[in-house]
UniProtKB/TrEMBL annotation:
Extent of Basic and acidic residues compositional bias: 13-22
Residues covered by region (Disordered): 1-41
Domain of life: Eukaryota
Protein name as it appears in the record: Transposase element L1Md-A101/L1Md-A102/L1Md-A2
InterPro entries recorded: L1_C, Transposase_22
PANTHER family per UniProt: L1 TRANSPOSABLE ELEMENT-RELATED
Organism (species): Knipowitschia caucasica (Caucasian dwarf goby)
Length: 301
């Protein structure tokens, strides 16, 4: 057999030149390594679509999970807070009620304070009036201290009138409205006797009895010392006794005259005729120390 005819190299070159003349460019010969693979592009596109789908599914899952968790947590929190809300609501109502009550009580207290202040002032005024009335009701009374128990017998008024006449050297027995022991329990053996309270009919006679009792001191009855005093109330007696130290100091100041007037007012008259009145024993003591005693020289005491 004869071999197939070969194309001549001249013919191939002539074709290549004609193609180059048509396109104007020279195309290199294709290499097997640079030939594109249609299957590889398809795989890449598929992977991209799968990645997008996975991202979308991930976002949906996360969103749904968050919604589920959020709903559960919200329900649990709401269930846990519900008792607290109920308690807070009750406490809020209680606080509002207490605030209203406090406001109401504040108004009442203000009114009560004003009432108490007024009543306190009235009670103080009434107490002073009662004290003054009680003191005036005792103006004709004398108090006799130191008379033994039981010596008065069954007629204490007549006994006291006779006792005053004999002790004070009076011409006649003073007219007494009544006389009795103080209303405390009868003393036991060894205890001091109860004083007598005698109401003198005439105020001038009562003053004469007190004057003579002061001038005739000490007075004795059955060998016992007896004293006669004005009958003051407990409040007045306490006020007057507070001046005892001042009066003792004034006794040592020659030329100074003094007297304790009702209810408890100390009047001091200096040698020059200046008169001072004191209702406070501390002020009186300070005055005597700083002014009265400095006026008296040691040689004249």
């Amino acid at each position: 057999m004869s071999a197939p005819p070969r194309k001549s190299s001249v013919g191939m070159e002539t074709r290549h030149k004609s193609e180059t003349a048509k396109t104007g460019r020279i195309h290199p010969a294709a290499s097997p390594e640079h030939v594109p693979d249609p299957g590889s592009d398809a795989n890449e596109r598929l992977l991209c679509r799968m990645e997008v789908m996975m991202q979308s599914m991930r976002s949906d899952i996360v969103t749904e999970f968050e919604q589920i968790v959020s709903g559960v947590v919200k329900r649990e929190i709401a269930a846990a807070l519900r008792p607290l809300e109920t308690s807070l609501s009750a406490q809020s109502e209680t606080i509002n009620s207490l605030e209203d009550t406090a406001t109401d009580h504040g108004g009442q207290l203000t009114s009560l304070q004003a009432t108490v202040a007024l009543l306190t002032e009235q009670v103080g005024s009434l107490s002073k009036k009662c004290e003054d009335l009680e003191g005036r009701s005792r103006q004709n009374n004398v108090r006799i201290v130191g008379v033994p128990e039981g010596v008065e017998g069954a007629r204490p008024t007549d006994f006291v009138a006779t006792l005053l006449r004999d002790l004070l050297g009076l011409n006649d027995k003073p007219v007494l409205d009544r006389a009795h022991r103080t209303l405390r329990p009868k003393p036991k053996d060894g205890e001091p006797p109860r004083p007598f309270i005698a109401r003198v009919n005439l105020f001038q006679q009562r003053n004469e009895i007190l004057r003579r009792a002061g001038a005739s001191a000490p007075l004795l009855y059955q060998g016992k010392r007896v004293s006669v005093f004005p009958d003051f109330t407990a409040v007045v007696s306490k006020k007057r006794s507070a001046f005892a130290t001042v009066k003792k100091s004034l006794h040592s100041c020659p030329g100074v005259k003094f007297g304790l007037f009702y209810p408890a007012v100390l009047r001091v008259t200096l040698p020059g005729g200046q008169t001072h009145r004191f209702e406070d024993p501390e002020l009186a003591a300070d005055f005597v120390t700083k002014h009265v005693k400095t006026m008296v020289s040691p040689d004249s005491i």
